[in-house]
Design a protein that fits this description.
heterodimer; A: alpha+beta; five-stranded antiparallel β-sheet; 28% helix; B: alpha+beta; Proteasome_bsu_CS (chain A); Proteasome subunit beta (chain A); proteasome (chain A)
Chain lengths: 275, 204
């Protein structure tokens, strides 16, 4: 009997594994069944209120350059205006040659990127060669199209290295899949794009690229309330990925950058009235 | 983040000490998730012994302060004397209730010293005055600051200790609120002087 992986056709609500197959195998959680799908458009996860639109409260960015791909993310998680954590890991290490970034629903991103990791490993074992970045991102897109309009919230980037080089894809819950050189995702992306577009060159060195990534995330954390915490930086090259920075506190960065400009950094440069 | 009180964000806190009183505020002026400036004034000196701290919708902070400034100036001209802090506290309550059906979207804290005794009053947006507690908070980060206040507060603190404690409470509280922070200012009011201290906080 052919074992249909529920996500093969993106029809996650149709097939379920039979119990007897699971006696001698690892218990794999079955893909969630959709109970209600909106007919008119995306299910509104935040009550539809525009002021409540925290769908992608974060800043993540990635860009391709001469030496590979640089990924930089912040680490803040917020529930409305409450900051639930400043230490979240928004880069998910799918395997040694693929990284995924998290934006939107944390649970959605964590689960489906882990699902993708499982799929990549299975492919590697069955076929003897690694799954390409294009194929991995397309697989994820297929899953998300199957859950379209059911309320998933994900704006992730898949970046990795394969035989044809380093590639960066943007995938979101609407089923969009875009290949590109520069992406920034999340509520702070507008601020990050400003810095990124200003200083981006394809011919950067690794150090320059790391500096640019850090600066772009820092600027986004300063202006965007839903971004903050620490900056985590990864570099993808032909041998896989390296974690360049695990947790650079943006508070320290703020005062460092202010000092470099000869300022104090307390927001009082114009010497505002205090009474 | 729905609601008119969450549109601009911001937090304030007031604390009583021994013959002194302190208020502190954050410095953020934002529009929903975007920060516009980090030096917005939220505490105003009404008189040498009265400070008015306001949180809520920034336009109403400014307008309500201008209204109170007008009231105290008129009072000084008509009565030819300074206003007592308890009188001002009552004035704020009535001024807020005057707009009962179209309120100012602010939650004020009045801090003053009357004959050496600290006066601290807080209100909801339509003028319900509460003046019995030793510390009060207002704004989007209020609940988080309450927790820090309960932990750090003790009665009858000296001005230096009070400044330290209120500063810490404000910063700890604002750290958990996405809409407050980006700097802090602490004002300590004693019989002799008002000291103002700018806190170095997270700018994120």
């Amino acid at each position: 009997m052919i074992d249909f992986d529920p996500s093969t056709f993106g029809l996650a609500h149709t097939y379920q594994k039979e119990d007897k197959d699971e006696i001698n195998t690892l218990r794999m959680p079955s893909a969630p069944q959709v109970i209600y799908k909106s007919l008119n458009g995306p299910t509104q996860t935040n009550g539809g209120n525009k002021l409540n639109n925290f769908k992608h409260g974060t800043t993540t960015l990635g860009f391709v350059f001469k030496e590979g791909i640089l990924i930089a993310v912040d680490s803040r998680a917020s529930m409305g205006s409450f900051l639930s954590s400043e230490q979240v890991r928004k880069v998910i290490e799918i395997n040694e040659y693929l990284l995924g970034t998290m934006a939107g629903g944390a649970a959605d991103c964590q689960y489906w990127l882990a699902y993708l990791a499982n799929h990549c490993r299975t492919y590697e074992l069955k076929n003897g060669s690694k799954l390409s970045v294009a194929a991995a991102s397309k697989f994820l897109q297929g899953i998300l199209i199957g859950y379209k309009n059911s309320g998933l919230s994900m704006g992730c980037m898949i970046a990795g290295t394969d035989l044809s080089g380093q590639h960066l894809y943007y995938i979101d819950n609407d089923g969009m899949r875009l290949k590109g050189d520069i992406f920034s995702v999340g509520s702070g992306s507008t601020y990050a794009y400003g810095v990124l577009d200003n200083h981006y060159k394809y011919d950067m060195s690794v150090n320059e690229a790391v500096e640019l990534g850090i600066r772009a995330i820092y600027h986004a954390t300063h202006r965007d309330t839903a971004s903050g915490g620490v900056v985590r930086v990864y570099h993808i090259h032909q041998n896989g990925w390296t974690k360049v920075h695990d947790g650079l506190d943006v508070v320290d960065l703020h005062y460092q950058f202010a000092q470099q400009k000869g300022l104090v950094g307390d927001g009082d440069e114009a010497k505002q009235r205090l009474f | 983040m729905s609601g008119i009180f969450e549109y601009n964000g911001g937090s304030i806190v007031g604390m009583k000490g021994k013959n002194c009183i302190a208020v502190a505020c954050d410095r953020r002026f934002g529009q929903q998730m975007s920060t516009i400036t980090t030096n917005y004034q939220k505490v105003f000196k009404i008189q040498d012994n009265i400070l008015l701290a306001l949180s809520g919708l920034n336009t109403d902070i400014h307008t309500f302060y201008a209204l109170m400034e007008k009231e105290i100036n008129l009072y000084n001209l008509k009565e030819n004397r300074k206003m007592k802090p308890t009188t001002f506290a009552n004035l704020v309550a009535s001024a807020l209730y005057e707009r009962r059906f179209g309120p100012f979207f602010v939650t004020p804290i009045v801090a003053g010293l009357e004959n050496g005794k600290p006066i601290l009053a807080t209100y909801d947006s339509i003028g319900c005055k509460s003046d019995l507690d030793d510390f009060q908070v207002g704004g989007t980060g209020g609940n988080y600051i309450y927790g820090a206040c309960e932990a750090f507060f003790k009665p009858d603190m000296s001005p230096e200790e009070l400044e330290e404690v209120i500063g810490q409470s404000l910063v700890s509280g604002c750290d958990r609120d996405a809409l407050s922070g980006w700097g802090g200012v602490v004002y300590v009011l004693t019989e002799q002087k008002i000291t103002v201290k700018i806190l170095k906080t997270k700018q994120t």
